[in-house]
Design brief:
The protein is mostly helical. The chain contains 17 helices and 5 strands. The protein has a domain at about 30-65 and about 155-345. The radius of gyration is 21 Å and the shape is globular.
């Protein structure tokens, strides 16, 4: 895994830019593999917060347009804006970014977006036209801009708070390790993300965009994945309660958690109406996706028409690889944020 602080990120700080030997400077960074190992050994302590964050973020994404692909393209373009600021060694706070009336995208390369998101070029073209019809993006000559409607459709106020809760918990766990140093409080993390928003959220989207692309490829579409995910979270909630009541064994690693969750038989599953309410996906669509998931032998249902994960789903090896891949990338994201807080010149007064 590459080091989380690159030269561009570091050089946006004036004190570092003035140092003549910047290119030869060795930066002491947190080791992502060590972060992964520690979080894995405390997997059950953070997974609940992570699942809640991920589910809320994805549900908000769907609610924006009732279409995941349009939102995926939107955040891809937003991340290009973040990257442009980073390339110029600049950053904006949360307030500064969302107070702007216009944000320059420069250009939209349909082929490049299609390749990055694994979505057909013609679908990309349709969705970009949709964003224009919604007056979220517009053209001035050959240049493309976001207008301030992005405040309405992409401002992640709730997700930011939930992310802070997750990072506070991980900081507390990592703070027990000598190599990490002191843990950060919720207030410190929130103040840092607010002040250096475009940097922090760029790394968040670098995590989320490939995460969504992988699940879209595996399930065929993100609506199906979200329906499956609602079932998985329901099952995990039941399993986690049994751990707390000391009925079930506490997992020792991410791999243990994955296997225990699949093998866990909950007292109750979750029905189509509840999935629809949680995900905001229409019930008719949910039922259609459930039929597909059942046919693919990924979920099963009981006599009460409540759905649960199958103990041995189809393509279980691919499931496991995807799951472990996600945990590695999550640890990399956590490493990057805490590296910025501890080892860069980004400071909150």
């Amino acid at each position: 895994m590459s080091k989380p602080i690159d030269l561009k990120t570091v050089r946006i700080f004036e004190p570092l830019k003035k140092k003549p030997s910047l290119e030869n400077k060795i930066f002491h960074t947190i080791n992502a593999e060590e972060v992964y190992d520690v979080l894995s050994s405390h997997s059950n302590e953070t997974v609940t917060l992570w699942f809640k964050l991920q589910q809320a973020w994805c549900n908000n994404a769907y609610s924006t347009f009732k279409d995941y692909d349009s939102y995926l393209i939107l955040i891809y373009l937003v991340n290009q804006v973040f990257q442009k600021y980073s390339d110029r060694f600049q950053y904006l706070s949360f307030q500064e970014f969302y107070e702007k009336n216009e944000l320059n995208i420069d250009k939209i390369n349909l082929i490049e977006i299609s390749k990055e998101l694994n979505i057909p070029k013609e679908t990309i073209r349709r969705k970009v036209n949709f964003l224009q019809d919604q007056k979220i993006i517009f053209r001035k000559g050959k240049t493309i801009f976001f207008n301030n409607a992005i405040n309405r459709v992409q401002k992640p106020s709730n997700s930011k708070k939930m992310l802070v809760n997750f990072l506070e918990k991980t900081s507390f766990i990592l703070g027990k390790e000598d190599w990490f140093g002191r843990a950060f409080s919720k207030e410190e993390i929130e103040a840092f993300i607010d002040k250096y928003f475009t940097i922090c959220w760029q790394h968040w989207l670098r995590l989320q965009i490939p995460f969504l692309v992988r699940h879209r490829a595996f399930f065929g579409d993100l609506e199906t994945w979200n329906v499956w995910g609602a079932i998985g979270i329901s099952q995990f909630t039941d399993y986690s309660k049994q751990i707390k009541d000391r009925v079930a064994e506490d997992p020792r690693t991410y791999a243990d958690l994955y296997l225990h969750l699949l093998r866990h038989t909950p007292k109750h599953g979750i029905n189509a109406s509840s999935i629809s309410e949680i995900s905001t996906i229409p019930r008719a669509t949910v039922i259609r996706k459930l039929k597909y998931l059942s046919k693919q032998k990924l979920v099963t249902k009981n006599k009460k028409l409540e759905y649960m994960l199958l103990p041995s789903p189809k393509n279980i090896k691919s499931f496991e690889q995807n799951y472990m891949h996600n945990q590695k990338h999550k640890a990399g994201f956590v490493t990057t944020i805490f590296d910025l807080m501890k080892n860069s010149s980004f400071k909150v007064e």
